[in-house]
């Protein structure tokens, strides 16, 4: 499905993205872009002595990858008005180098506006073990048919 309009979304609809494996290069590149060189992400020897026992991906890297996976579905590529925001963001489990993550997106609410609507999504990012590693509520302003 591509370029859905506000009217096309129904509460309960669910979408699942493709998977993507998190690499060491992802972590290093994200550290360089964000400036977050915390050793739990970037220092193998330091990370061995943490509760995780090895390096973990930045939470915000995991969020960025999930966002990209969702965008790749092209559900609202030409119908989105604006990304409205994120609520209740929680990093629930670590993501390690070599983990493969995907996003499961469920429509949980719709709010009518004059020329567009707000669609609320519950997003759960899951790794290959089935563990939810990230969960949040996402809102997007989506064009109505014949609207903007």
Automatic annotation (TrEMBL):
CDD domains: MaoC_like
A family per Pfam: MaoC_dehydratas
Domain MaoC-like: 11-121
Coiled-coil intervals: none
Gene3D superfamilies according to UniProt: Hotdog Thioesterase
PANTHER family cross-referenced by the UniProt entry: BETA-METHYLMALYL-COA DEHYDRATASE (PTHR43664:SF1), MONOAMINE OXIDASE-RELATED (PTHR43664)
The protein's name in its UniProt record: MaoC family dehydratase N-terminal domain-containing protein
Species the sequence originates in: Geoglobus acetivorans
């Amino acid at each position: 499905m591509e370029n859905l309009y506000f009217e096309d979304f129904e509460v309960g609809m669910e979408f699942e993205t493709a998977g993507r494996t998190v690499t060491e290069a992802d972590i290093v590149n994200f550290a360089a872009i964000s400036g977050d060189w915390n050793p739990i992400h970037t220092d193998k020897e330091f990370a061995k002595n943490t509760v995780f026992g090895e390096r973990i991906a930045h939470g915000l890297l995991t969020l960025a990858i999930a966002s990209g996976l969702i965008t790749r579905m092209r559900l609202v590529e030409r119908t989105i008005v604006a990304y409205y925001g994120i609520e209740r963001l929680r990093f629930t489990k670590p993501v390690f180098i070599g983990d493969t993550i995907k996003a499961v997106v469920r429509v949980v609410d719709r709010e009518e506006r004059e020329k567009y609507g707000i669609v609320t999504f519950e997003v759960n990012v899951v790794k290959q073990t089935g563990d939810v590693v990230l969960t949040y509520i996402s809102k997007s302003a989506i064009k109505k048919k014949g609207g903007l």
